[in-house]
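Q: what sequence does this backbone want?
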């Protein structure tokens, strides 16, 4: 069906709910016939997600720069692992191989990827749907801040509306699937 790019942490976070959400999203992606596109690691939420997709019979494409293969502990059991020379190529390759984007909880890498792909959408470089999986209200402070940028006149409501959010994987996937051509 569709290829869904997921940005998420190479750590598990402090709550078991984050791992459960990654597992549930991975299972749903695999069962719905979607292909996962992600950063290619076998550790943290990244590994949990990839393993869940594979266990559900889905396909997984990992994309990892050569300099991170050891550091991020590349997952060599994927359907395909694409090695690229740098982070710029990683993000471009992930975007080119995706029909939609999801961000799960993560750190600065996740935030950077999310905001770059959202900016690309704003600039008209793609028209692919984007969403946040707001597990345990992880993204609630960010969503409040984004709404504040609208009320302060620094972000148009139409741009804010490009980024949808939901508390469960099934709700978020349904929202994104409605937008995928």
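A:
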């Amino acid at each position: 069906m569709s290829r869904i790019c997921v940005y998420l942490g190479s750590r598990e976070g402090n709550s078991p709910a984050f791992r459960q959400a990654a597992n549930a999203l991975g299972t749903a992606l695999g069962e719905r016939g979607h292909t996962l596109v992600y950063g290619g690691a076998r550790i943290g939420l990244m590994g949990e997600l990839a393993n869940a997709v594979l266990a559900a019979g889905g396909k997984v494409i990992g994309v990892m720069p050569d300099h991170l293969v050891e550091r991020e502990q590349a997952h060599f059991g994927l359907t395909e692992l694409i090695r690229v020379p740098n982070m710029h190529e990683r993000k471009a390759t992930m975007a080119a191989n995706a029909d939609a984007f999801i961000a799960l909880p993560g750190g600065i890498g996740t935030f950077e990827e999310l905001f770059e792909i959202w900016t690309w959408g704003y600039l008209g470089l793609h028209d692919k749907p984007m969403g946040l999986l707001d597990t345990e209200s992880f993204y609630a402070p960010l969503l409040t801040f984004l709404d504040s940028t609208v009320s302060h006149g620094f972000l148009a409501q139409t741009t804010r509306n490009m980024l949808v959010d939901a508390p469960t994987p099934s709700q978020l996937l349904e929202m994104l699937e409605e937008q995928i051509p």
